[in-house]
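Thread: "does anyone have the structure for this chain?"

Original post by V.I.:
We have the sequence but no experimental structure in hand. Need at least a predicted one for the grant figures.
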Amino acid sequence: MKMLLLLALIAIPFFCNAQDLKNKHLDELFDRLETKNQAMGSFSIAEKGKVVYQRAFGYASLNPEIKADSTTRYQVGSISKTFTAVIILQMVHEGKLSLQEPLFRFFPKWPQAEQITIEQLLRHRSGIHNFGEDRSEKYSLVNPQTREEILEIFEQAPIDFKPGSRAEYNNANYVVLSLIAEEIDGTSFTETFQARIVKPLQLRYTYVGRNAGQPSHEAQSYYWRRGWQKHPEGDLSTLMGAGAIVSTPAEVNVFFAAIFNEEFFPQEMISKMISLEDGFGMGIFRYPFNHRSCYGHAGSIGAFESMAAHFPDEEISFALCLNATRRPLNDVLVEALKVWFGEFD
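Reply from O.Q.:
Generated one for you, C-alpha cells below.
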C-alpha cells in the first residue's frame, strides 16, 4: 500500500512537469507567431470536456487596438456546416425528416427536386448549382439579401450534375439545409440554432452572425500587405448554416465533444454522420494525424481561417481560429498538435 502511494506521489509531479512543458512549448509557438507578425487568433484544447490549454495571441482589432482574449469571437466559416448537419440529423432522429427524403417535399418547383435527397445535400452530392463559384454574367453579381431572393435563385438555377453521381463541395447544399431546418421548426435558422445548439450546451459566445466587427467583441480580420490591412466586412446573413456562425475556439470544442458524447443523438446516428463517401461525411471530414484520426471541419471566410476537430479515442477536441495569418493554418495546427501529443521535432 505504501509502495502504491509512493508511486502515485511520484507520478503527480511528473504529470505536472509534462503538462507544464507542453504549455511552455505552445506558448513559445504562439509568442513567435505574434511577435513576428505571422498570425493573430485563438487556440484551445479540451480533454474529456475540460479546457486544458487556451491561448489568444495578437489583436481582435487594430483600430482601435483591442487585444484578443478567451472571449473574442471569430467567424468560423464552414465549420458552420457541422453545426447545421447536427441540427438536420437531430430532426432525422426525432422522426421529423428522413435522410432519403426528397427535396420535392419542401421545394417542389426546383429542378430535379424529386431526385435530390437530404443525405445528398449533407454529403455534397446533390448537384445543386454552385452559383457562389459561377463567374458567368448571370451569377457574377448575384448577391441575394432576402430569403425570397435565395429561393428564386435556387428555383431558376440548373443542376450541375446528376444527383448522387459524385461529390462536389458546395456552400449551396448547406444554405438549402438551413432553409429546410426553418421549414421543419417553423422558425428562422437563427432561432433554430439557438434552441437546438446554444441553449442545450449553455454557450455564451456562439451565434449566427451578421456583420464582422459588430458588436465590438467580435474579431475583425486582416491580410498582410506591408503590414496588416483590414479585410472588408461582409454580410453573413444569407450564408446561414453554410458559413454564418460566430464562436470562440473553446465553445467550438464544447460543441464537437458534445457530438461524440451523444448529447445530440445516439451512437448509431454519430456513426452515420462520420461514415465517409468519396471522402465526405455528413457535415464532417476525417483527418489523419500520424497514427490517430480526428473528425472535424475547416473554414475560411474573408481573411478568417479556422479548423476544429475531435479525437474520439483520446477524447480530445481542438480548435484554432485566426483573424490574420501569413502562415498556412495547417502548418500552425500540425506544430501545435505535435507539441500536445509529445511529438517534438
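V.I.: this helps a lot. Residues 77 and 243 are 4 Å apart (CA to CA).
O.Q.: and The longest strand covers residues 292-301.
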